Amino acid sequence: MKTSNLLFTLIFFLGSFIVSAQEYKVVTIVESIVPMGLGRSRIIESQGKVDVEALTTTRDGNKSNSGDVDRDEIKESGENLKETKLVNFYSLVGINFGNIASNDAVIAGKINSVVKQGWSVAFITSGVESDAGKDDKKGLFITRIFFVKK
């Protein structure tokens, strides 16, 4: 009896070190910070698979191994996507809190949809792009949601 318990404990302990294969998915949310609703806000979800090694450059001293991949080939890898429309943060009179609430509902719906497909949220990161100068009237709020599936 003690031998079987020890064997079970040993198998359980060693099994915890086995790393299972994981797959990742990135969903990007771009929300426009442009007055009068002139910007474009979207949720972007890539549908394509990319050969990262074919896009990777190796540098060794003065030599570079850039392969035969050019910018057009990289762009082609991102053409297969899902695009969900969002409304802009600003309306004609300024910031529109109703638009923000609408976007929150759409984003939550997107997250729920992806989670129902077996993905889990791994982490979320965000940032703002804007020159923030005196006459700054434009910018982007970008959020990336990283999902993982085992």
Cα-atom radius of gyration: 23 Å
N-to-C SSE series? Answer: HEEHEEHEEEHEE
How far apart are the first and last residues' alpha carbons, in Å?
34 Å
Largest sheet: 5 strands, antiparallel
> Helix proportion of residues, in percent?
25-40%
Report the mean per-residue pLDDT as an integer: 79
DSSP strand (E) fraction? 25-35%
Q: How many individual β-strands?
A: 9
Multimer state: single chain
Could you say how many structural domains there are in total?
1
Structural class: alpha+beta
Strands of the largest sheet, in order across it? 5-2-1-9-8
Unreliable spans are none
Write structural notes for this entry:
It is a single chain. By secondary structure, the chain is an alpha+beta fold. The chain has one domain. 30% of the residues lie in helices and 35% in strands. The protein has four helices and nine strands, in the order H-E-E-H-E-E-H-E-E-E-H-E-E. The strands form three sheets. The protein has a five-stranded antiparallel sheet, covered by helices on one side. A two-stranded antiparallel ribbon has the order 3-4. The two termini are 34 Å apart. 9% of the residues are buried. The model has no long low-confidence stretch (mean pLDDT 79).
